[in-house]
Write a sequence for this structure.
């Protein structure tokens, strides 16, 4: 029997705030988590792409996990990003790490290696067998260089009962619709792209792991919940209100856009870790104007 998917509705891909000296800003992180939960976020994604995870040390990642776990206090489900391009490393982590307080793991497709579809299947099968928590697949070919095809996603879902969903950020609408149409019972699709979340919700996705939700958890959450309730008129109006910001979030890459927006909102500082740098003055001004609009 398939493990139930606890990740529906508005999920927020948490950023990692840094102090001016480049250390993790734990007070700012605590404030963001508290605000997101108070605004009605349904779940939180910790140490995903938006968290600049590749630039964090193992000690920092563990401290961030603990911080979010403490602030959350079991109020909403937590999903932990812990994918890698080495299958053995992921399996070793899942069998040795302290995952208390977390309700699932988000596993990105292996990057750089560019495995075949058979390699992707075997990667996820091994991870599913090792994982003590429900697994969510994460397909984002623009970052990893490999697309997890619908047939492979469905094969994994059919063979691994603890693989409960896929976070789809391929932008390939037909591929995503194919997954929704043929998914085994209990296996679900989560949007990984804010700009097409409304469209995906109308064809059967059950939620989103959102970037822009860091800044607008209440408003973006209202859009998601309206769509899930079938109120597409309300959802469309809210979706359109974000049109300019959707574009600006990606103009210099993620999480540069969202961290700039949060900085303009005075919720975090402007610091990134190399190789990322803060948004340009032009992008910052465009974000400021879009906020006013």
């Amino acid at each position: 029997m398939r493990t139930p998917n606890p990740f529906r509705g508005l999920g927020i891909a948490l950023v990692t705030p840094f102090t001016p000296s480049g250390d993790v800003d734990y007070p700012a992180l605590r404030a963001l988590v508290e605000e997101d939960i108070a605004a009605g976020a349904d779940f939180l994604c910790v140490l995903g792409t938006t968290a600049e995870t590749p630039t964090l040390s193992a000690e920092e990642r563990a401290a961030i996990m603990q911080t979010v776990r403490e602030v959350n206090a079991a109020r909403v489900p937590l999903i932990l990003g812990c994918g890698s391009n080495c299958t053995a490393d992921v399996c070793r982590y899942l069998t040795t790490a302290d995952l208390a307080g977390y309700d699932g793991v988000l596993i990105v497709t292996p990057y750089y290696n560019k495995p075949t579809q058979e390699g992707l299947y075997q990667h996820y099968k091994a991870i599913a067998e090792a994982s003590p928590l429900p697994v969510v697949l994460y397909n984002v070919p623009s970052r990893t260089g490999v697309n997890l095809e619908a047939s492979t996603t469905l094969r994994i879902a059919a063979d691994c009962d603890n693989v409960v969903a896929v976070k789809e950020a391929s932008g390939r609408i037909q591929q995503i619709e194919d997954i929704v149409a043929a998914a085994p019972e209990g296996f679900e699709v989560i949007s990984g792209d804010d700009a097409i979340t409304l469209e995906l919700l109308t064809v059967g996705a059950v939620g989103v792991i959102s970037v822009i939700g860091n800044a607008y958890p209440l408003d973006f959450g209202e859009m998601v919940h309206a769509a899930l309730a079938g109120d597409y008129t309300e959802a469309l109006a809210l979706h359109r209100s974000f049109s300019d910001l959707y574009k600006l979030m990606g103009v210099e890459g993620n999480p540069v856009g969202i961290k700039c927006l949060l900085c303009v909102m005075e919720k975090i500082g402007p610091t990134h870790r190399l190789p990322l740098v803060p948004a340009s003055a032009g992008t910052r001004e465009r974000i400021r104007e879009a906020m006013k609009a």
Observations:
- Residues 58-72 form the longest helix (15 residues).
